[in-house]
Amino acid sequence: MTFILGVHAGTGTYHDPSACLIDGDGTVLAFVEEERLTRTRHAHGVRMPALSVRWCLDLAAVTAEEIDVVAVGWDEPRMSSHAGQPWRFDSPREFLTALGFRGPRWPDLHFVPHHRAHAASAFHASGYDRAAVLVLDGNGEDECTSIYRAQRGGPLVRVASWPQVYSVGHMYEAVSAWLGLGRHGAGRTMGLAAYDAGNVPIDPGWLVPDTDRLISVLGGDPDQDYDMLKSRWHEQVIAFTGVDRPKQPPQSLDTDPVAVHVAGVAQLTVENVVRWLAARARFLTGIDELCIAGGVGLNCATNSRLPGPLYVPPVPHDGGVALGAAWSLAAPTNPAVFSAYTGSHPGTLPADLAGVLVCDVDVDRVADLLLDGRIVGVCRGRSEVGPRALCHRSFLASPVSAQMKQTMNMLKRRERWRPFGPVTNADLGTWWSPVGQLDRYMLGAARLTDQGASTLPAIAHIDGTTRPQRLHDADEPFVAAVLDELARRGHPPVLLNTSFNGPGEPLVDTAAEAFDCARRLGADAIVTDSALLLLDPARTSRR
């Protein structure tokens, strides 16, 4: 049996390290992001995900000596050569040792260019026989955007690329930092941008698509590095706004017209550039099927404005290059749309459950709680990979009361203006579904109908959109059964679905983490594989 371990690791890794174990047929055996194990969002500062490597091996019951190849999602030698510096590691064995390998049998070490790994992760997850692949992130080794032609059974062929000076990722990061949301606050910036929907769109001229080229206000010098571009983009934002920071703190940014407007123009820039790049990818490859990878692929508002056929994987960001690096060496022999449920099982409940009522897992009882306005955490099955909660590690609540949006934001310690998305397993006619598989992973925005906005106010954003998940019953049968029971009782088969975590934390992974998080935040109940926990029985027990 052949085993290949893909990793997002090395000197190019500044956030979202990860590991993925596949067999020789490309079947994913285990795939996890380091943040789930360190319990720190994005696992900043971790360049060698040794915890993820060990976790993958343990879950699959594979020993380190059985690994044939370690595939790295960065071309480390190329990066060192480009920088004019020796490789940081003295030898492949030193690199492997930092990942936790100890011999006596050492795997081969293979380096995959960063964007090629991104492209492989998207194409091979899509189930397409061929596709144009568009990769957009902050930067790879020396590019920020690239286009590939992909065909099942053939190599990925790069047909175009752009250097960092054209990076929509760097631009959006600079706006997020100016807003006080942090360099990884892109999701919050996208949510804030919706508050600018009533204003006349203004293109700031930062990145402008021309007929067959992209024009950057920062020029076209390919040798500008991240630190230089970060500073220059910050200067552009200050020049556009006329101030060096918003007047309001993050909690009240929706009341700051300048903050709302700069978020809006940043979002408009991304949408204009990505639409042009998507058309360019289809033109250059002659293929209509389009896959998108890279961190910009998490911008669901942009994704929803692209025509199909379209596929974005649940891990388009850097965490996904571990999967792509592995698949670059052994593509799936039985292509299918990727299932995001590759992580841990919840494991056992904590030993100390004092003051908690432990019940059998019961669809009727969970439906009672939700209809009573309670918040229920779900920690069942293998955890989902990627940043979106897909009903294996989710907080669920009824969305029929507008107050639930505020209640959930308070529980999660989030800004009050931030939106939530729904989950359903039915065709409701309450929103226009996004194209392709975007609603499989909550990666596309959908416009609500008037009926949807009025009946489901807790999941309606300020601009009339929402970010839905369409749950296939086999994905999470228990939640699907709860949705069916709600429908039987006259409640729409829709629930507010948001990530099971607190501020600064990744999704919970284990039942013990779920219990700690739910109690700390003030949720009412948790459903695991084996039990329903009522955290405040006096409030939530049947009378």
Structural overview:
There is one protein chain. The chain is 31% helix and 18% strand. It is an alpha/beta fold and 543 residues long. Helix 6 runs antiparallel to helix 9 and helix 7 crosses helix 9.
Adjacency order of strands in the biggest sheet: 13-23-22-14-15-21-16-20
The value of Rg in angstroms is 23 Å
> Which word captures the global form?
globular
Q: What distance lies between the first and last C-alpha atoms, to the nearest angstrom?
A: 57 Å
Biggest beta-sheet profile: 8 strands, mixed
Integer average pLDDT: 95
Helix/strand class: alpha/beta
Number of helices: 17
Note the topology.
Layout: E1 3-8, E2 18-23, E3 28-33, H1 35-38, H2 50-60, E4 69-72, H3 76-83, H4 92-98, E5 108-111, H5 114-126, E6 130-136, E7 145-151, E8 157-162, H6 168-178, H7 186-193, E9 207-209, E10 214-216, H8 226-241, H9 257-285, E11 290-293, H10 300-303, E12 310-311, H11 321-329, E13 357-359, H12 363-371, E14 376-379, E15 393-397, H13 403-411, E16 421-424, E17 431-432, E18 446-448, H14 450-455, E19 465-466, E20 469-470, H15 477-488, E21 494-499, H16 511-521, E22 525-528, E23 532-534, H17 537-540
Parallel strand pairs: 1-4, 4-5, 6-11, 11-12, 14-22, 16-20
Antiparallel strand pairs: 1-2, 2-3, 6-7, 7-8, 9-10, 13-23, 14-15, 15-21, 16-21, 17-18, 18-19, 22-23
Helix pairs in contact: 5-11, 6-8, 6-9, 7-9, 12-15
